[in-house]
Write a structure and sequence with these properties.
By secondary structure, the chain is an alpha/beta fold. It has helices at residues 27-43, 59-67, 80-93, 133-146, 168-180, 189-198, and strands at residues 17-18, 24-25, 48-53, 71-76, 119-125, 147-157, 159-161, 164-165, 187-188, 202-208, 214-219. A hairpin with a 2-residue loop joins strand 7 and strand 8 (164-165). It is globular and about 45 Å long.
Length: 223
Amino acid sequence: MPTERDDRPPVALEQREVSADHRMFSPSVARNSAPILAVLKRVLPTHGAVLEIGCGTGQHAVCFAGAMPSLTWQPSDPDADARASTSSWIKFAALKNVLAPRDIDVCSEQWGVEQAGHFDAIVSINMIHIAPWASSLGLFAGAGRLLRAGGLLVLYGPFMRDGAYNAPSNAAFDAALKERNPSWGLRDITDLEQVGEAAGLNLRETIEMPTNNMLLVFSTGSA
């Protein structure tokens, strides 16, 4: 896997409506929030702090935090428009357990949230395939630093397994991503397992999700 960085700004892969108060509306979030939430309710702790990497519109943050009020949700995104949308969604939802979004570059050695202490979970949805491989490396390195013992790294999106696609549509999607940006593309679960092990995380669950996506649960070990 190449390790080069790509500092071009992120680009949404879908058309999003934007309200007058800067809230963005993602069609994919509307489709995947419920199935993702069902898994998160099972795997996340009842109480604790969750860091979201790549919060996008902010709709996931308010959906999940609203359904799990005993968790404190810290969204983050390197894109200013995404943070503005997330801030507006937080205000619109009037939730007290969602913090203001942070600007986090996962490739940095410091994420700016270290002072908050260790997190119980880090969640990243549909991020690593529209980012360079260096972002995957940085995500796992950061998780190794910031997760408490027994903490979880939860990844959602399309993946490969042992070099194979689980559906023709994902093969076509991977080709389209690489045509758009050669540093993007579906990541192989085997490669992620190796990166995780180097950071002290082991793959605990691989969960099949709708539309040929998967949810991967990595753990730092026993609490």
